[in-house]
Amino acid sequence: MQIYLPIAEISLDIFLLLGLGGIVGFLSGLFGVGGGFLMTPLLLFIGVPPAVAVATQANQVVASSVSGVLAHWKRGNVDFKMGMVLLVGGFAGSTLGVALFSLLRQVGQIDLVINLVYVIFLGTIGGLMFWESVRALLRRRRSPGQRRKLHQHTWIHGLPLKMRFRKSRLYISALLPLAAGFVVGVLAAIMGVGGGFVLVPAMIYLLGMPTSVVIGTSLFQIIFVAANVTLLQATQNQTVDIVMALLLLTGSVIGAQFGSRLVSRIPADTLRILLAGMVLLVCSKLFVDLFARPSSIYVLEVLS
Fold this sequence. Notes:
The chain is mainly alpha-helical. The protein is built from ten helices and four strands, in the order ββαααααββααααα. It is a multi-pass membrane protein.
């Protein structure tokens, strides 16, 4: 059953969109990730314009992150002070990112930039994740029960403007979370993702936060950054398709329930390797599409 998407200006099957949402929701529940870095490429694969795919996915990230924060808040696993510092950097980064998005769209390069950014980041993150997962698996088999430090103090921990984050048991420079939030804000605007796949490793290995509070704090920051991106994209670029977002969100909510039930049956090391492989697979498809011959070489577009 076809439905017309007014902002994307294309017609797509309702069950296809619900299915995509269900698949990404299932993977989110299975791997514990937001799924934004997978949803946007999938939307590109079915013909959704990159600008609309990015902005609409940012809208979905808001809804999916709220439920996660509430769950972690009840368990006391959210460092609100750290989240606010990350949020300041995130607001600055997302505002700059949307302005850059508008500029690239005006010069007609936004589609190329979105694909390039996805290929670079997914390739890098997927490769590092796969390598680290394999190393961890081999190390655990050789030395079972041995634990390693998550982070080491370096010169960056001696930067000025230090703050004490009691929930995270840290006394570090506020410049570190500000910079991390800024980078994630730019990525949220350009890629339409929450940025958790970059922020979570940075919070663990760079800031040295306890793993127990990382996810909840990351989701807290993502809610407001993604909401800022959605608002700016809707007002400045008019690229948020609410109809598509609602269908994707409906499928994601259902799929996440099934994924969360399956996660306890698969070993953690296997899950990380599967996630890395999936990220590299999506990256490979985007890379091939960059060099593939388009179906129509010449396209006429009326700019308003």
